[in-house]
Amino acid sequence: AGMFLRLLSDVRWRAARPKWRGATCSCRSTSSTAEPHPIALPAQAQVVICGGGIMGTSVAYHLSKMGWKDIVLLEQGRLAAGTTRFCAGIVSMARPVSIELKMADYSNKLYQQLEQETGVNTGYVKTGSISLAQTQDRLISLKRIASSLKVMGIPCEIITPKQVAQLHPLINIHDLVGAMYVPEDALVSSANVSLALATAASRNGVQIHERTSVSHVSVQKGRVTAVETDRGQIQCQYFVNCAGQWAYELGHSVGEPVNIPLHACEHFYLLTHPLKEPLPSNLPTVVDPDGRIYIRNWQGGILSGGFEKNPKPLFTEGRNQLEIHNLQEDWDHFEPLLSALLRRMPELEALQIMQLVNCPESFTPDMRCIMGESPAVHGYFVLAGMNSAGISYGGGAGKYLAEWMVNGYPTDNVWPLDLKRFGSLQSSRTFLRHRVMEVMPLMCDLKVPRWDFQTGRQLRTSPLYDRLDAQGARWMEKHGFERVKYFVPPGKDLLDLEQSKTFYKPDWFDIVGSEVKCCKEAVCVIDMSSFTKFEISSTGDQALESLQYLFSNDLDVPVGHVVHTGMLNEKGGYENDCSIARLSKRSFFMISPTDQQVHCWAWLKKHLPEDSGLTMEDVTWKYTALNLIGPRAVDVLSELSYAPMTAEHFPSLFCKEMSVGYANGIRVMSITHTGEPGFVLYIPIEYALHVYNEVMNMGQKYGIRNAGYYALRSLRIEKFFAFWGQDLDAFTTPMECGREFQVKLDKGLEFVGQEALLEQKQQGVYKRFTMFILEDHDADTDLWPWWGEPIFRNGRYVGKTTSSAYSYTLERHVCLGFVQRFDEQTGQRLVVTTDFINQGDYQIDIAGQRFQAKAKLYPFSSLFAQRRRKDEGELSGY
Amino acid sequence: AIPVRSSRLPLLSDAMTAPAHLYPLIRNCEISRLCSTVCYCHHRHLCCLSSHFAHSHFRCAPQKKFAALCRPKEDFNYFFHTRDYASTPQRFYLTPPQVNSILKANEYSFKVPEFDGKNVSSVLGFDSNQLPANAPIEDRRSAATCLQTRGMLLGVFDGHAGCACAQAVSERLFYYIAVSLLPHETLLEIENAVESGRALLPILQWHKHPNDYFSKEASKLYFNSLRTYWQELIDLNSGETTDVKEALINAFKRLDNDISLEAQVGDPNSFLNYLVLRVAFSGATACVAHVDGVDLHVANTGDSRAMLGVQEEDGSWSALNLSYDHNAQNEREVERVKTEHPKAEEKSLVKQDRLLGLLMPFRAFGDVKFKWSIELQKRVVESGPDQLNDNEYTKFIPPNYHTPPYLTAEPEVIYHRLRPQDKFLVLATDGLWETMHRQDVARIVGEYLTGVHHQEPIAIGGYKVTLGQMHGLLAERRARFSSVFEDQNAATHLIRHAVGNNEFGTVDHERLSKMLSLPEELARMYRDDMTIIVVQFNSHMIGACQNEEL
């Protein structure tokens, strides 16, 4: 930190001049701070960015590069004085989520040339990094990352402990089983990177004002209009909240609060004096996740910090302060990390301590950063919550956000980072405090397929929660809603949580198998209440007209019909994938994936015409959904309702309000989200327990049992059903996933994305959703696929899987994923044809091991013995 | 009143090596040398005796309340018995579970029951424990809730010259206090019940460890004395409301008086007759707390101590004394004794920091040797049972014994109004206070009860510290921290520290194991009986009371 301090006092921001003077004009004495704000703020600007850390400066840099000039950046203290100043400066590309990996890769390339571009010394050194594995499971997780790095063209190799010793002389390798080496990872001075970005932005015309606090963001008619600061007002069209750990509070200083769920935790790292023989500056950075620490060289000594098991959250009450300093060093708290450090590098015992730095980092509820536009306030953008990887993401995140603002959407799918994946329900301070205490240790914890968060649970539950729980339900969470994974039969014990973490065959394998079997042969009940449910109705034809414009399928169907359709963007990509039932001529019932609650609402609000005769209501909480899957569902339901439920009377994709047991007004739909026969019952919540009890009692003689989402997933994946948010995203069109039948290009009405789809229909698609059956994979002994595994066609990389499941029917693993076609010389993307898919020889790479796979563009017809309407293949659950 | 605290720790670690080099000496039967060595190291340990004591055979167990006269026969036996364990290999190492089973053998906890999920009492509960050094232990403890008046009574009693007096006081004193506090009507009601053979109103609800016993044989005798007391109270009915302070003083004095009278009168039953004499000729100090809402009274006789644990605004802990030690270190007490006797005796009254050169506490129950006239003593001893006559001690008359009584059981009573920052009260016999400073006691208990380890944060400052050094330091601090979680009882936790603390203020298992595995005969050299009660207060209730009155 000493170094940073010195540099900061040299590199003095000159608010007195419109143009910033860079590092060359050093030696500004402190007296320059005595003239606080010689330049007045502009009265208006196109964009106001709040926060002068790495995020704010990166956004300013990229916006100005993209041609937006009228930008003001405000910093409450000094530029790069917050978390940015203290951060460890490690640029690491080893990220499990592909979008994060892309951001880190871009950042690395950007920082590398930044000094040349700006003249500011960024301290960029390509050191490489070594991630150590103390266990085989850890090594598997590193191998998985290595696979995805390699196909991105980032050099990376799995090395032996001996090779580790050759790369780094101080590492104790006795307890290692292997490591991952990423030679292009780098170190930077994070504050200087930030200053360099600011310099470049300033040269491009961005005005930078330090010591200016934003107190309030004014909103009119749902749009940002102005920013109030302690130095006056700036009128603006766009506001960008890059306030780091203060972003949450700043988000609430708006008339319409912008929920930015993040929470700060103290983060400690150690600085030492140089070794007797100072460490070379290009020595690789060491990450020892099993010891929860990272170690980089620092001025001949080391800098080492980590992510402890018992983090200390702070600022829960939102105590604000100008700059982060005077936070206490806490050696007792650091003790486990120090032990890990000395275990990893015993020779450091004699090394003299310089300082223990306490630098708060902000964490988010799902360990991914927060980016995008507020669903409630147009023009209000956010970039924050970096989960201690701000430097790695800074460049890429700034670029994506700038693209988002300038072009309406980034050049890549950023849904995993989109602010709209959260709602107000993740904004409770208690929730955040508890969740970040889990998230911070998770930075180092081993993450196996289908791990779940343990904190902040039981927030949203179905009325049947206790009933199901008592019957052995095991739960997972989506958007705060508890959903059943599977039911543990009485008398059967599963491994405890720690032991059941595995990359191999999980302990629930047989349990889910029997649930699937029951769905195939008898009938199962799955509580699917978490789905987002909207009702749209109008006084006249407005509802139909608007929906016809927003959805690609034809919604002008007879009352009582259910339509599966995409909600597409201009490029024809899926913004949402839903089922819509026409309840009456003028009202529609729309079912979307659980985590669409905020995004879909915002999208509809944005696109539906202002019309008092058109109403939209979120009725998610009003209905409990029971999915009856299986051939005997018909029997159960007809006995309970005294109504014939056979295909003649109740065809597939049909919706009708009827009575079930004593309860009337149950909305019954003949869809199951799996392709299996059955019904979903939308039950007003007060009837939920009654209907459930009736169904279970009546179902007994048909062999009814409870089932969970794992069974559902296995069923839908073997049926080749895509899942929005997992398989489908804003960059995927119906044409690319074999759903042309859901697009009515000829419905006679214009709809969003129509043009793009027409073009695609003529020119062909550049990627194709494909189903892969693993051939030589042994489910008992081989690593299981998860998602994100590279797909190889004739030995060449063609894409990644998006989801996978074991098919109990096929007794094989099924992976779903997209196949692309790259020109062998130029790497350019080419049109993917059916022949291209069918004529390939495929392999799926699971943690470095390749398995033969058979590609299919259509599901197994034999599995569809029960299908009733050929042209209306069903969509999956969400 | 704490003997040379600062030098204690390093000295104690020297003393720890003593047992090892004692054995060869014992084998050679060099008793006199042994004696002086033992006294020497013990003396260094406690720093409370003047050096010439070491030359006296009789004064070789110097920490006894009676410097010279403690069962000399047994003490001789002890030296001869030492041969036994010289031939059997000593196990000095106890495993942590063994240590814990010793430390926890006498622990007791009481939680004040809640009504409607609310504790309306100012006391949340208490933890108590005792660790013997004498065999049998001479300390006693009592705790009871007053059923006819409000309030809770807690007390520790440190016996000397045997445990008889401490036992009797621990059984009887709370009844005397409870009766002193009772309003006239209740006394009448009780008396009428006894008179007509009806069931008696229960006066006290005892909170006893199974090891805390009551003498069955003496209960009738004790009851009759108590009944006489309340009958007198009924006759004396002043119509005034009972003042707690006065009640405590009266109860203490009355019980001591009854002990004295019972011994003078004797009992036809030879067992009881011997018992009452043993009670009267042995002694006991008493430190008793009466808590009723925010009103806390501490009555103290002798050198046990009551201390309040106060949490400062910054979260740190400090100690507030609620009793004065009645011993030679207390100048006011020395002054009091001197004014009560002719000037001619001034020099002989306090010698070697002891009353008449013999007794460490300046106030005590029993100890009729310091209260009765020589004639009375001789008459009672001569008419008493043979066992009494054979006892060197009872026949021995203190030197310079001219104007008895020299000793009183009258307590000093301190009143304290509880504040929200007063988190707990520690009552303990001098076995604790000899080894620990009250400030440390406050901190250790405070941190234990709050579960927060408030240790000074480490700051590097300008010092040169290596990673290895820091690592060692932190490991030690963590060990200290984890010892908090071993104990479910604050008193046990305190004993663990008192016995096992090393020079860093950390519990050192090796030391703990050595101290607890000392043979009975040696234990007394290194530590005294230790009895501790930790009362935890209900800050919410206390705060609410305060607010109501504001």
TrEMBL record, chain A:
Its main location: mitochondrion. Signal peptide: none annotated. Pfam families: DAO (PF01266), FAO_M (PF16350), GCV_T (PF01571), GCV_T_C (PF08669). PROSITE patterns: RHODANESE_3 (PS50206). Belongs to the GcvT family. Decreases the sensitivity of PDP1 to magnesium ions, and this inhibition is reversed by the polyamine spermine. This is Pyruvate dehydrogenase phosphatase regulatory subunit, mitochondrial.
TrEMBL record, chain B:
Residues 123-537 form the PPM-type phosphatase domain. The keyword Chaperone does not apply. Its main location: mitochondrion. It is found in: Mitochondrion. GO terms for cellular component: mitochondrion. It catalyses: O-phospho-L-seryl-[pyruvate dehydrogenase E1 alpha subunit] + H2O = L-seryl-[pyruvate dehydrogenase E1 alpha subunit] + phosphate. GO terms for molecular function: [pyruvate dehydrogenase (acetyl-transferring)]-phosphatase activity; metal ion binding. Its cofactor is Mn(2+); Mg(2+). Keywords: Acetylation, Calcium, Hydrolase, Magnesium, Metal-binding, Mitochondrion, Protein phosphatase, Transit peptide. Gene3D superfamilies: PPM-type phosphatase domain (3.60.40.10). InterPro entries: PP2C, PP2C_BS, PPM-type-like_dom_sf, PPM-type_phosphatase-like_dom. The keyword Metal-binding applies. Pfam families: PP2C. Belongs to the PP2C family. PANTHER family: [PYRUVATE DEHYDROGENASE [ACETYL-TRANSFERRING]]-PHOSPHATASE 1, MITOCHONDRIAL, PROTEIN PHOSPHATASE 2C. Heterodimer of a catalytic (PDP1) and a regulatory (PDPR) subunit. Mitochondrial enzyme that catalyzes the dephosphorylation and concomitant reactivation of the alpha subunit of the E1 component of the pyruvate dehydrogenase complex (PDC), thereby stimulating the conversion of pyruvate into acetyl-CoA. This is [Pyruvate dehydrogenase [acetyl-transferring]]-phosphatase 1, mitochondrial. It comes from Dryobates pubescens.
